[in-house]
Amino acid sequence: MRDNRFSVVDPHEVAGDSExxxxxxxxxxxxxxxxxxxxxxxxxxxxxxxLRPAEGVTTVPAPRRRR
Length: 67
Description:
- This protein starts with 18 loop residues before the first helix and ends in an 18-residue tail after the last helix.
- It is extended, with a radius of gyration of 14 Å.
- Helix content is 42%, strand content 0%.
- It has 2 helices and no strands.
- α1 (19-35) packs antiparallel against α2 (39-49).
- By secondary structure, the chain is mainly alpha-helical.
């Protein structure tokens, strides 16, 4: 795996942010990532906007078990 200088930060550590603010920041990170030319471009844009890559992480529910 390539070292991209990103640190893993729990997105819930942002003090004082409501769920609506966290959701908006999550969408912003994902929009930047989808529009960036490459990883370095993405890192530069996120830094310029004061966003962290970990804020774009979402949880995916586990698949249902078939009986």
